[in-house]
Amino acid sequence: MRFSLWPNLSQPWTELVAEVSHVEATGWDGVYVADHFMGDGERAGGNVSSMFEATAALAGLAASTERVRLGSLVFGVTYRHPAVLANWAATVDHISGGRLLLGLGAGWQLNEHEQYGIDLGPPGERVDRFVEALDVITGLLGEPVTDVAGRHYAVTAAVAEPKPVQTPLPILIGGTGDRMMGVVARYADEWNMWALPARFAERSAVLDARCEAVGRDPATIARSCQALWFVTDDAEAAARRVARASPLPAVGGSVEQLVDAVGAWAAVGVDEVIIPDFTLGSGAQRVELLDLVAEEIAPAFR
User: Fold this and answer.
1) Interhelix angle for 197-213 vs 178-187, to 10°?
2) 160 — alpha (psi -120 to 50), left (phi > 0) or beta?
3) Is the pTM of this model over 0.85?
4) Backbone region of residue 157 per phi and psi (left: phi > 0; alpha: psi in -120 to 50; beta: other values)
């Protein structure tokens, strides 16, 4: 099983780079960043949290790291034109020496669309647009010339050079709905969702069925998930924190309890656990908890 970090893009850049450098030096497998411009629910004119832009952040991390895989959770195609995103992805794959995992999604966060005047659209339309975007992206990244004549995107005799280092460039898709599972089955190298084991197992079974329907071996799609982590030997405090995290999935407790939690994910087919740093504190406390994961939890699943 792989263990990867999801660092918060709201922290100062120097602290972000130091955190990523530390996990690279201590054996973590990957680093993912979120693609949002503000927190969910933050209103125009209110107190808005600072947040670095994801494409620039990944380019910077590609240049400042040497080993870890770098990915996005996940780029929203509603505000990133697929042809532009494909060219960006090829460039950053070269900067990183072939370590980019291109994470993509149909878009969901209402407030950033409203504030920036970007149409989000109803769920069905988002999936339609997403499929067209995937056709544009996979075409430009893998084919000499691409033509897509869709309702949302039209590219004609389009070229994108250079191609990425990785051929094909791996694509991660984040999603949970039944129709999105069909899209994952057709296009993804990796599938991702927020989930505890029971929910993950149920959605994973749907993905298996969608793969079989299109003639694809389900084992060819890697599977990752994330939840908030609360590391403490105080069982009552862990239970309170996990309960307060709802509706986001969360795990908490001692090292032994967290090993059990990861084991439950492994038992339902999770290949990669992604750990957000949002609940791990800062400074020395965060470094201590990151090292605890690397030294006392991850080895049980290597």
Assistant:
1) 60
2) beta
3) yes
4) left
